Amino acid sequence: MTRSTTLRRRALVVTAVATLALAACSAPAEPEQPPAVTVTPTPQETRTAAPEPVVPEVPITWPLTGVEVDEVAERPSLAVKVENTSAARPQAGLEDADIVWETVVEFSVPRFIAVFHSKKPEKIGPIRSVRPMDATVIAPMGGMLAASGGQGGILRMVRDAGSQLLTNDAGDGGFYRSSERYAPHNVYSSAKDLWAQADDGLTAPPPAQFAYAEDAAGATAAGAGESTASISLRMGQGRPAWAWDAASGTWLRSEGSSDAVSEAGERLTAVNVVVLTVEPFDSGYNAQGGAMVPNLRLEGEKGKALVATGGKTIKARWTKGKVGKPIELVDADGEPLLLAPGNTWVELMPTNEGSYELG
Q: Can you give the pTM of this predicted structure?
């Protein structure tokens, strides 16, 4: 090896060593780690009010019709005994009744219990005397009954059942005789004059007597019933009939072959027709010539029913508890039966002299 070669190698080694030394000097130093710090959170309690529960708005309705209204009048129910013979027709005020109950009294004659609350007819009549079944029929409403008179024992039945009684024979106000009719078919009154005599504190509206759907389509018979064009009844000597009128959405009433109309010339109609099969019995009271005055087994009883709504009919059952409890309607499964909002006529059809046919 020559001397010059040896010198070059030494120079290269020195250069490499110097380079490594320089690189080592310029390498970054390890950063210092800061001391560990423990932070304890300070909780802050924040309270907010619980959201108000959303309560669905329940519509206000007339208790005896289920028809929606802005405000229910603070007045009791007013039941009026109205005659239903050829001498009494056409009657006044029936077109404004919320519920009309038709019964059969002595001599197989039909008679009405017209109940008012949502409307105030200026003329009601002809008004006749009370009958034994009246006490049980109207007791659940806790209101008033207006009649021309009645036997003392039957009048006590009405009072004992909790209803205020007004009669023409007792000299109560509001009654008058019309010169256009012969007695005893000429006693009349007005809702205003009768309500004006309500007992102090008797201002509460009556409780509902039937269950109602929100609208006609929701009624039980309308949804599950059979199409029916007409209902023909035998009620003692009476022959009432009902024909469905789709244009008005009501049942049109007839008396035999004649249209049933009010004194004002208005056709008598019903949104719901309810036929209750009821058993009559001897009340222990007698009429002219010793004729038996019937009563009806209602309190604590049950029986068959037919409900007509929306051009359809459905067979049902009725039940009634104590005298102050309303009649309940249930379907074949025992579920509450709903009527359509509107007025209702109830035919209390006696088992011994009553029947119906559907058309």
A: 0.85
